[in-house]
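Why should sequence recovery work at all? Because a backbone constrains its sequence more than one might expect. Tight turns favour small or flexible residues, buried strands favour hydrophobic ones, and helices have their own preferences. The token representation captures these environments compactly. In the example below, the structure is given first.
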């Protein structure tokens, strides 16, 4: 028989947004329950060095998330290791059902399920994630000062990442599987004008090359999309920029989505299209996708939920 747990505020998802929402909700005496999901801590758990978190000159991603979780627990959040499989938002209290059959009901709901980078799906790519393979130039570009790096992709994200990386890298090579880019024309013009950037057309990545202990990337094995000819591209960093996928499947058809599946929130708030449901972090953010902005939105979501609950009871 499944358990049923009622709470005033249910937070679905961990990561900077979820844990920060939990801290603020607990301090507001809302006794939040946070369900961590499949990957407790989110994308930062696969990030090694983090050098842009205020107050920490250098911190490991997993360590930072462990500290956030400990903080949320310390102020009174109940943290549950479980994964929500279904959300029923048709009536209050809202209902969440986990894949183990546990049921949670909540007067207010905060969604913090994040977004995941789309990857190439290579075994070698998995092996070097966090050790030369990244999906965030803003997060990791600083580590490649004076080095040669590659960006894989052809849309706005890829071009923006390539341009950003020129602030650090000696050379940036953009690898694209087609003979033209999908990015906006103004971005393409900036890319083609930049002396540090080279574009390799009509090529796909077959393998990430690397060695050492700890492991490090030494290059990419790339293949011509039409002829099949292979070559090696030397680089010490490979940035995969083929898009992000917001984890919004739970609320598809129940909340307003936009920009390819991100949850819409009213500007300046974390209020979704459904009263009592709030969203924070990468599930709403297709622009910044930073830990610090996610944490800020987590704070906003808890404060928005607190005020909304107070208005309902008043």
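From this structural description, the recovered sequence reads:
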């Amino acid at each position: 028989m499944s358990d049923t747990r009622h709470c005033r505020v249910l937070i679905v998802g961990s990561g900077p947004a979820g844990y920060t929402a939990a801290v603020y909700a607990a301090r507001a005496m809302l006794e939040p329950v946070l369900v961590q999901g499949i990957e407790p801590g989110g994308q930062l758990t696969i990030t090694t060095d983090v050098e842009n978190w205020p107050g920490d000159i250098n911190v490991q991603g997993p360590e930072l998330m462990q500290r956030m979780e400990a903080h949320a627990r310390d102020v009174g959040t109940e943290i549950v290791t479980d994964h929500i499989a279904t959300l029923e938002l048709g009536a209050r209290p809202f209902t969440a059902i986990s894949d183990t059959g546990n049921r949670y009901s909540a007067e207010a709901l905060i969604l913090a399920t994040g977004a995941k980078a789309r990857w190439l799906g290579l075994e070698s790519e998995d092996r070097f994630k966090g050790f030369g393979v990244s999906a965030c130039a803003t997060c990791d570009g600083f580590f490649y000062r004076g080095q040669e790096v590659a960006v894989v992709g052809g849309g706005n994200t890829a071009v923006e990442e390539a341009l950003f990386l020129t602030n650090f890298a000696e050379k940036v090579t953009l690898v694209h599987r087609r003979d033209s880019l999908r990015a906006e024309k103004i971005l393409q013009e900036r890319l083609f004008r930049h002396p540090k950037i080279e574009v390799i057309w009509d090529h796909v990545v077959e393998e990430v090359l690397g060695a050492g202990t700890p492991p490090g990337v030494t290059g990419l094995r790339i293949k011509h999309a039409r002829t099949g000819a292979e070559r090696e591209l030397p680089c010490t960093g490979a940035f995969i920029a083929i898009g992000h996928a917001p984890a919004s499947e739970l609320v598809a058809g129940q909340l307003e989505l936009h920009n390819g599946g991100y949850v819409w929130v009213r500007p300046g708030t974390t209020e979704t299209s459904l009263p009592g449901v709030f969203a924070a972090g990468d599930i709403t953010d297709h622009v910044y996708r930073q830990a610090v902005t996610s944490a800020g939105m987590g704070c906003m979501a808890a404060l928005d939920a607190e005020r909304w609950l107070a208005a309902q009871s008043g």
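A few observations help interpret the result. The radius of gyration is 21 Å.
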